[in-house]
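LAB NOTEBOOK - FOLDING QUEUE
OPERATOR: T.R.
BATCH SIZE: 2
PURPOSE: Compare the predicted C-alpha cell outputs for two unrelated chains run back to back under identical settings.
PRIORITY: normal
REVIEWER: second-year student, initials M.K.

ITEM 1
FIELD SEQUENCE / FIELD STRUCTURE:
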Amino acid sequence: DKLLTYFDATHEANPALGLRSMRLTLKSPDILDRQLRAILLAAQGHDNIRIMFPMIGSIDEWRQACRRLDACAADVTAETGAPCRVQVGTMVELPAVVELADAFAAEASFFSIGTNDFIQYMLAVDRTNENVADYYCPHHPSVLRGLQRVTAAALRRNVEVSVCGEMGHDPRFVPFFLGIGIRVLSVDPDFLPQVQRVVASFSMSEAEAYAAALLAEDTIEGARARLLDPADAT
C-alpha cells in the first residue's frame, strides 16, 4: 500500500485498482526477492516465522509468488547451510478469492481476511469518497456470505483463518465471526478490552445463531435490522 521511496512509480488515476501490492512486486521481482531474502535470513534459527502475500487474485499469482519464495529459500540455504522454515499464507482481500477459496486452502498455510479492502472491492466503493461512503456496507449480504464461504473453505482444510481490519473489532461483528468459525482476530490494543468483553458475553451457540440469522438475510436493510446494537454488544 505504501510507495517505496526508491521506486519510480507512475501516477495512476485509480491506484486502488492499479499497480500495487503483490502486482507491483511480481512485476518487479528484484524488489520482491530482496524482501523475501531479508525475511528468510532473519528467520534463521526460528520456526515461527510467517510470510503472507497480499492482494492475491488468482492461483496463478499465488504460485508465481511461491516460486519466487522457493528460489530465494534455496539461495539462502545454499549461503547459510541452514534450511528455511517459514509458513506461507495469503491475504483474502479480493472477491476473486471467494470462488477459489478451496483451491487456496489446499495450498496455503493460513488465510488472513483483510476486511477493509474485501468490502471495498466486493462493493466497488472507495470508503474515503464521501459521495459513495454510504455504500461502504460491512453488513451487505454479499460481504457476509463471502466471509463465511472463505472461512468454511479454510476450516475444511484445517487452515488457520484470521480477520484484520475494522470489522475485527466492531462489537456488532465479533459474534458473527465467532459464529462462522473465526478464532483469531487481529485487533489494535486499544480495542482489546472491548473485544474481550464481547467474546465473553456470548456462548458459541448464541454466536452461531446470530451468524445464521445475518447470513439468511438477502437485503442490506434486513441484515441491518438483525445487527446487534453496539451498546448492547458490549
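ITEM 2
FIELD SEQUENCE / FIELD STRUCTURE:
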Amino acid sequence: MIRNRVLYTQVPGDNFVPGIVMGGLSGRLFGELLREADIHPGLTPGAFALLGAGAVLTGMSRMTITLVAILTEVGGDVAIMPAIIVALVVARIAATRISDSFDDGLMRLHSLPFLEEAPPPELNFLTAGNAMATKVIAMD
C-alpha cells in the first residue's frame, strides 16, 4: 500500500511573490486613501503599489540595490527611481532594527547551518599565523 507523502525542502523559499502581493496591495491602498483625502503627492496609486511591493520585499529579504534596478525597470520610468531608493532604504533600516530577515528566520527555525556576518568574539585573538604551518612546503 502506497501512502501519499508530502516532501518538504528545508530551505527558505516562496516568499517573493507573497511579498510583492502584500506590498502592492498595501501600497495601492495607501495611494487610494491619499487620493480620496485629496492629497496629491505627485505619484499615482499605481506608483505607491510599486513602492509598497519594493518596501515589503526589502523588509523580508534585505535586498536593496537589486530591487531598485528591478522596480525601476518594471515601472518603466527612471524618474521614479529616487522615490524607490528612499522607500527601500527606509524599509531596510526599519526592518533591520525590528528583526532578522525572513530567510534567516526560516533557517533558524529549521536548524540549518549558516555563517553569521561577523565571527564570534571568541575568535578575535586568532591571526593568520595561527593557521599557517611552521614548515613551508613548496611544490615544484
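REVIEWER COMMENT (ITEM 2): Residues 60 and 139 are 48 Å apart (CA to CA).
FOLLOW-UP: none requested
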